[in-house]
């Protein structure tokens, strides 16, 4: 053992305070969306006496497990509006938060392998253009210009017939995004309380007045849930149901490689999405495990399937190795769109149902949730995403439409 | 990979099955009389417990028959397998989540 002293710990990015008895607003869940909600409560609404309660450590759930893809090429108007708002914020955030979280607008290709894919892709490109989202249709030879390692040979089981391309899409380092938001929110006065699990809700009639936690009771008349896969568990404690199902979603990385993959490639039909992290790992993801699960792990055949899909598209990956696989718990809604808004409990708001696609929405999710909590009314961007739509039938059906299979 | 025991064919890999979600969701007795809220409940709202969950599976690449399973959604342990028309079995009191 070396007797050398360890170096001093660098400055912490946020304080680690004990909870106060009362706050103006409480956010349950210290993932990306919860942290962003607290930041925008302070920044946009001047509500700085805010606690974010996290049962583990900050951004240790899906915020650390996603495949970091950012895009806004969704089919329906409501989705394009909220995701494009998020993308515009992503473009401003590195400067605003004074933190380079390696946002890289390297574009996303959504490959088409069937005639139906081609028709859907063209339709989505046109819908995107009408909504001010950058989008173009590429023929196979143009796909190869954007991403030379994609196999555009006709001699494969599912040849590439073309692709949609969104040049402004990209990736960012997800944990740095969380830390950037957390540092900025902390500086504005937000308390991030870690190792603090909400076990029950304090109510007065139909109104929420606080939460019971593993670190004592904390009072507030405004409480927002941003608990992703655990939203149903929390809603049950508050006495209502949510139309979401929790599933494992897995991803994997290879060992480090020289830069070979210049963009993000997604394929619905053979079902994989692939990018290359700044450090060099190939990052891959695909669909959820079919069964309900809270175990943060899934079945290996799902990994095998997405690697087979990746090899079909990228023969160059044949000698790459899986370094690590993991799973997160995603809350999937019936129309594959999020739920952001009021609940049957007055003063209690919910932000859930992002399913497999929450990371890219982080700024818009936080912005609209903060607005909803601060004013008691939804922001125009999240108004269509209310819980009420499952009764009215005004669904925002992104199943299969959102440029990704769910 | 889950190992599920089909009541008719015996233990088989998860890849032979398809998932059917929550078990024991009955079709409404009087569909014409349901309110919008009740339709929403029937169509879109399902239990999503952290712990034992009664769910449906179909042995797609085997006998193609449906059956029910009680499975822990945290440990993924299969706690009971039973027929599609049988009531959910009582399980010994364990560690409820």
TrEMBL record, chain A:
It catalyses: sarcosine + O2 + H2O = formaldehyde + glycine + H2O2; sarcosine + (6S)-5,6,7,8-tetrahydrofolate + O2 = (6R)-5,10-methylene-5,6,7,8-tetrahydrofolate + glycine + H2O2. Its main location: cytoplasm. Its cofactor is FMN; FAD. It is found in: Cytoplasm. Its EC number is 1.5.3.24. Residues 26-69 form the Rhodanese domain. Keywords: Cytoplasm, FAD, Flavoprotein, FMN, Nucleotide-binding, Oxidoreductase. It holds the Pfam family DAO. Belongs to the SoxB family. This is Sarcosine oxidase subunit beta. It comes from Planosporangium thailandense.
Automatic annotation (TrEMBL), chain B:
It holds the Pfam family SoxD. InterPro entries: SoxD, SoxD_sf. Gene3D superfamilies: Folate-binding superfamily (3.30.2270.10). This is Sarcosine oxidase subunit delta. It comes from Planosporangium thailandense.
């Amino acid at each position: 053992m070396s007797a050398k002293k360890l170096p001093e710990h660098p400055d912490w990015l946020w304080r680690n305070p004990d909870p106060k008895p009362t706050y103006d607003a409480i956010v349950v869940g210290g993932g990306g969306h919860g942290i962003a909600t607290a930041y925008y409560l302070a920044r946009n609404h001047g509500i700085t006496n805010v606690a974010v309660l996290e049962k583990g450590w900050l951004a240790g759930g899906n915020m650390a497990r996603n495949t970091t893809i950012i895009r806004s090429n969704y089919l329906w108007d409501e989705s394009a509006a909220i995701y494009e708002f998020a993308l515009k914020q992503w473009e401003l955030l590195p400067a605003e938060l004074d933190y380079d979280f390696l946002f890289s607008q390297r574009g996303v290709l959504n490959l088409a392998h069937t005639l139906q894919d081609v028709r859907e892709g063209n339709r989505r490109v046109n819908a995107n253009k009408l909504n001010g989202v950058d989008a173009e249709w590429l023929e196979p030879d143009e796909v190869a210009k954007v991403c030379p390692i994609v196999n555009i040979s006709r001699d494969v089981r599912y040849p590439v017939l073309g692709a949609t391309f969104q040049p402004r899409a990209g990736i960012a380092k997800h944990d740095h995004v969380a830390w950037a938001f957390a540092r900025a929110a902390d500086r504005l006065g937000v308390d991030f309380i870690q190792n603090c699990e909400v076990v029950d809700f304090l109510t007065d009639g139909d109104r929420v007045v606080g939460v019971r936690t593993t670190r004592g009771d904390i009072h507030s008349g405004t409480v927002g849930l941003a608990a992703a896969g655990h939203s149903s568990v929390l809603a049950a404690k508050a006495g209502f149901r949510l139309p979401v199902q929790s599933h494992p979603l897995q991803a994997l990385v290879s060992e480090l490689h020289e830069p070979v993959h210049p963009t993000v490639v997604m394929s619905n039909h053979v079902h994989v999405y692939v990018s290359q992290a700044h450090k060099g790992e190939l990052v891959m993801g695909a669909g959820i495990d079919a069964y309900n699960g809270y175990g943060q792990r899934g079945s290996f055949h799902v990994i095998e399937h997405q690697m087979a899909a990746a090899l079909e598209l990228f023969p160059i990956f044949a000698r790459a190795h899986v370094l690590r696989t993991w799973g997160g718990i995603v809350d999937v809604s019936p129309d594959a769109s999020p739920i952001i808004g009021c609940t049957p409990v007055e003063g209690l708001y919910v932000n859930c149902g992002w399913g497999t696609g929450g990371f890219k929405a982080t700024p818009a999710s936080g912005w609209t949730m903060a607005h909803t909590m601060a004013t008691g009314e939804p922001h125009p961007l999240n108004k269509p995403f209310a819980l009420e739509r499952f009764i009215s039938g005004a669904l925002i059906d992104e199943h299969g439409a959102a440029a990704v299979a769910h | 990979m889950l190992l599920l025991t089909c009541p008719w064919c015996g233990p088989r890999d998860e890849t032979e099955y398809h998932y059917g979600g929550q078990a024991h969701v009955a079709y409404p007795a009087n569909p014409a009389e349901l309110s919008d809220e009740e339709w929403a409940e029937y169509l879109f709202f399902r239990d999503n417990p952290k712990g034992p969950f009664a769910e449906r599976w179909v042995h797609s690449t085997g006998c193609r028959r449906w059956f029910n399973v009680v499975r822990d959604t945290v440990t993924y342990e299969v706690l009971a397998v039973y027929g599609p028309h049988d009531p959910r079995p009582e399980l010994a009191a364990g560690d409820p989540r």
